[in-house]
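Predict the 3D structure for this chain.
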Amino acid sequence: MGENEASLPNTSLQGKKMAYQKVNVDQRAPGHSQYLDNDDLQATALDLEWDMEKELEEPGFDQFHLDSAENQNLETSETADLNLDSIQPATSPKGRFQRLQEESDYATRYTRSAPKSSRCTFCRLVKILCTAIILFIFGILIGYYAHKKCPSNATSSRTLDHQLYQEILKTIQAEDIKKTFRNLMQLYKSKDDTEISKTIKAQWTSLGLEDVQFVNYSVLLSLPGPSPSSVMLSSSGQCFHPNSQPCSGEASTHSSQDLLSSYAAYSAKGTLEAEIIDVSYGNADDLKRIKNMRNITNQIALLKLGKLPLLYKLSLLEKAGFGGVLLYVDPCDLPKTANLDEDAFMVSLNPGGDPSTPGYPSIVGSFRQNRWNLTSLLVQPISAALVAKLISSSKDETKDGVCRPLELPLHEKIMVKMQVQTVTSFKTITNVVGYLKGLTSPDRYIIVGSHHHTASSYRGQEWASSTAIITAFIQALMLRVKRGWRPDRSIVFCSWGGTEFGNIGSYEWGEDFRKVLQKNVVAYVSLHGPIRGNSSLYSVASPSLQQLVAEKNNLHCFRRAQCPETNVSSVQIQGDADYFINHLGVPSVQFAYEDIKSLQEPSFLSEALFPKVATKIEEMDPFFKLHETITKLSGEVILQIANEPVLPFNALDIALEVQNSLKGDQPNTHQLLALASRLRESAELFQSDEMRPANDPRERVPVRVRMLNDILQDMEKNFLAQQVPPGFYRNILYHLDEKTSQFSILLEAWERCKSLASNETFQEALSKVLHSINSAQVYFKAGLDVFDSVLVGKN
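Done. Predicted structure below.
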């Protein structure tokens, strides 16, 4: 005890010095100079502290302490906070706040043994603790609301892109489309397709489109003869033109252009007198029934258009031995408002391209084959009114409000003499092609196709609607390009020539640039025949694009009745998309307005090209609002495909489409179903493991995105069958119509199998489908293996 008392003064001094040294060490940062450790400086600090203690012992100390206690605590607290931030683990393993918790006597020694210091220390600790809690809560709130209000990079990017698309599309106005349409129709009256092509090129160039050029091909065209074709009743000698007008001189001069345009391009020409045999729609069952009843060799078939491709039905008739065909559209298959009973029409028997150069382009020096006609049949389109005269029936066959189809009485024998007059000659057709080069992937192309009038073709106005729409989109797009923006991928705008004769312009251009297009084309957007009615929006898309198209439909529908949920399908369509779908396997999309009734009619009626008056389009869409809608729908799809980092294609939808196409009563499909199941598994894995990360900017790797896009754009190439029935799509993902969901080639082979009592054709079709599904499954698996190997290489 005494030893302790004797050393108390020295201990007090040492305690003060230790307390000072602790504070000094705590406050020293690693970057401080060594002069902070100087003994003279420490001694000076001790003297100052000793003098301060003496002053505090003088009278008035209590008052000073009370007045300044709060300020002192505040300053100490602030100093503590600053020191806590500056302390580094290497200098002070235990922070000051941590020492206050671990050393119970540290606070007491630091503040010296004043009577009220313990209360001040407690207040200081409470303030520090409260401040820390408040800051902690405040930090949590900032983080929460920052995360809530600030979207992810992916969401933000998509929002900005959507805003950009809407800024471009809002400049599209119906009045501008109407003006362009009327200007084109004025040019059309000149009957010179060269002037139309020049006008389109000049207009696109004036809008700012880059590198607009003509691409010309010399091709073999089948044109109307010098006089209209005719059909004469052998019994009475009455002669009629295809529209049912008598073959008198006055009638021939009246509407002579319409009469000349009523023909079948590339039909055999000549004269045939024979018996008419009603074959209805000309399917395999119809022909089997008729063969069992009478001799059909070299007879004339009375054939209805629709339900099956015309080229397919003509191939069956030719194989059966018929010599001629009178082709018509039954009024019961048309909307009541159509009123086309007395109108004849044009059809083309050309499957695609220049007939004289099948499979290769019609460039200078190409070998020309002698293919003046593409069938041995004499084919002549006629009006429903003429059919009614030939079979002695009223053309207004209705009973109790129900339309009765035209048909020849079973045992009635009618002999006619048909004369087909056409001429074939080489003509130059012109494509107008303009380019907007992409910013980051200029070697990837989105092709947008319309078509323009070709000399000597039918007098329709669909081409003017098509051209006006593509021009309106170019105008809106180039306004933004002039402000410095460009899409990531290139957009190629094409106005095709020779469409009415079998998509000749697009086929020849495709064959000419086949190697480049096979590798680089991403998608084809068709603007063929955009206004065919005014009551229902009808969309056709590849399976991989159906999800994207359905989203756009839902966003743009302003009346629910115009947008049924099931109106997006993969069915065969008319127009220049044919080459890109069936020879390049390119995903495609087309928007059009139809009449609701026409959607319930037999398919393939659009193969008939009726000569319409110039005001017909404006009657269907007087304010051109439907034109504006088609332009905006097509434009948004074009922009999204051209600008999204990852192509908006859905791999899984292809696998699901394959499984749905195998539903039906066809036998021996169990092996196909098993293979389709494996394809779906591979597609699901591809979708989840590769597409999902690529759509997140935080996980996106440019090299992997490019690999992914290459796989997505080539998916449909696996479903191109080498040989299919005439008129059927080589791309087996497309169905004949909305009423059939099975693979078209399987359905056709099964029908023929039942009629011919042989399954060889059906087994061959099964093999084609099997190879396509297997190719797709291997393709997806190979893609997954490539991505895995890339990951292994990086690791």
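The longest helix spans residues 760-794.
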